[in-house]
Amino acid sequence: MIKGLWWKLTGLGLILFSIIAGQLVGVPDLPVIRETIRNLFYHVPMWFTMFAMFGTSLVYSIKYLSGNKLKNDIMASESVYNGIFFGILGLITGMVWAKSTWGDFWTNDPQLNGAAVSMMAYLAYAILRSSIDEKAMRARISAVYNIFAFMLLVIFLGVLPRLADSSLHPGKGGNSSTMEGLDLTMRLVFYPAAIGWIIISYWILQIRTRKRRLLQSVN
Amino acid sequence: MKEIKELVRKDFLLELRQKYAINGILLYVVSTIFVVQLCFGRIIDESTWIALFWIILLFAAFNAVSKSFVQESTARRLYYYMLAPAVAIVISKIIYNAMLMFILGMLSLLVFIVFMGFPQFNLYLFLPAFLLGCIGIASALTMVSAIASRTGNNAALMAILGFPVVVPLLLLLVNASKLSLKSGLIPAEILQTISALFLIDVVVVILSVILFPYLWRD
Lengths: 219, 218
Hints:
The complex is a heterodimer. Chain A is mostly helical. Chain A contains 6 helices and no strands. Chain A is globular and about 55 Å long. Helices cover about 85% and strands about 0% of the residues of chain B. Chain B contains 8 helices and no strands. The interface between A and B is medium-sized, with 31 and 30 residues.
């Protein structure tokens, strides 16, 4: 019997529901976007999940600095790696969507810049970790960098897009808004998708940290 | 307070005694600007001017700030550890680096104007943004150099760790510079940009003060 089976099944069920219903429900026929609007169900949850993971890693980094327990460091680093994985998925799904609606895989857009810079910051975090050998020192220094980078990224993603006001993304100047004008049926698919992916990402995180702890006890 | 003053004084004395470091950076700035002038000629449009200026200044900043913790050996670090609290050390480094950065920035601006000409900036926006940008870049890189100095391969890590941290600031600075080219700016726009820059600076300094003690102790 798998422990915590009910929430794992809930997560799986929500994702399955969103994948199937995402193809079937009627969507509003907006200019330019057309049927590609269905990608909203698959692309946006990736970013939500990535932020949930990076947020988790921030919490565990703060916990590590206040308690110096190595298990918190394992949680922090594994959630970063997990978040990077979902970030890459978000980039790929977004690029496919951008190609079909804006005509290019990459455009100069505040949201895209934010995504690129946060991926860079966390890849730098991974390199920083691999360049320090001593365990306690690696944990402490990477925790400091994690907190520092996250806070600056929050400003970057929170303040700058509002100042720029020229994003191609919906809800910002010069584009037909889908997020605010999201109709009820789309909401009913989108929110389960986001919640489902976040639940599954925590499951992945759990397995990864367990593996790391086992490896550590073997060595 | 007294410790901060003494530490800043010490850093300036060190810089003046080994002049090759600061002179090297100045020569780097001048030669880069000269190369830019060779490539682009004098007449370039304003957005290219802005982009080139900030990129050159950014790399000068990386060069200038990256050595701020590397030159402190383990033994000397232990000595400081006994002499002054960690907060005093990080604040003194930030003040010193911000001053260094401001001087470097002013000199590069001067050289840049001589070689490339000066677009019609609104100085009420450009100068405060420039000052706040120098402080912000210097303090963010101070923290990054403290992190990088604790690892084996300092130079490469300084660049990859510093880049994501500085890019938000840099984008804001480029936007501010572009905005200051607009004619008929209203004070509200100026205030909004300046306050966003100020906010980033304050957050960076507060984070440094909170996080630096964890880097400092062994």
